[in-house]
Design brief:
42% of the residues lie in helices and 22% in strands. The chain is an alpha+beta fold. The protein folds into 2 domains: 195 residues, no CATH class; 133 residues. The protein has a 7-stranded mixed sheet, sandwiched between helices. A hairpin with a 3-residue loop joins strand 8 and strand 9. The protein starts with 6 loop residues before the first helix and ends in a 10-residue tail after the last helix.
Length: 352
Amino acid sequence: MSSETTLLARIAPWLTGNIENVAVEALGYILNQSPAARKALAETVRLGGGEIAPIARVWTQVVRKKRERPDLVCFDETGEEQVLIEAKFDAVLAKHQPNQYLRSLPHGKPAALLFVAPTTRRETLWPDLCARAEAEFEVTDVSKWRDSRSATINDGVHRLQLISWASLLDRIAREAHNDSDINAISDIRQLRGLTDRMDADAFLPWHLEDMGPGFARRVLGLEKLVKESIEFGESDKFWSTAGLSYGSGWKFYGRYFRIGDVVVWFGIHLNVWKEYSDTPLWLSFEDKYYEKLMHANLARFTFESNGYHYIPIELPTGVEYDAVLDSVVASLKSIADQLKRSNESQPAQPQA
């Protein structure tokens, strides 16, 4: 599924390089406009052990006495600070985080410092937060609940917490639905689209099993599979590579060939794989061929990205190479056959 599911997810990266600020302002707007959203946030903090009062209002990018600037500050009805929120996507922790924020929590009163980050950062960010806090504070009652993490700081009334963007926004969305807050539901969907996109782009920590030669062998096996699939189809005259070349880059590897008067590209495309479907292999069509795809009843299988239309080519699992090759060639031949049969009476497109 594409991570560009909302207008905000689509345009924000084009307008600014600091997506975290966009997300912070959007979250602050939602919280200030929606009592249901504030209720959900307060309940989230309470689930992590923070015994806070209802949240009355939220400020963003507040510069404090010692020049620290948490992304969001949540106040109760008396104007007392209750929750500091620090939003993260791929930015590293600043040197003063989290300790400077923990020091600034109201003395002797229930309060929490909540970090919001991509799900993929949870297992690496949380140990770092705890280790930094332990250098200055007594950290106890470290706990996990679902997609969240929590720890008690010093006297027990302060909490250090971590939650994913997805989990927090899901909680807020559920409360907005329960409250029939239509505007909040729409706004949350916009922000969720943006955070999902950033979550998809987040760095995935390497695991020991990823470092073995098996990973490299599979990647090299895909290169061989692309070459031989195209060669087999060409030998059976389903398509032609005459006058066309390989098209490769840092994130894709493949070859162009011609099916009738349609020039296509087939290969490994990491960006499309990451965003749309569980296969590394894709058949790509330029936008000028979309009408032909429509006529061939193939457009419904495509995913659009940057002016190209991609059809996923599924890979069978748990079988020998020959069976994988046969399956891929059969899929490509089926698509080629549909294009040829459906477009025989259609006017030819200019060749690339």
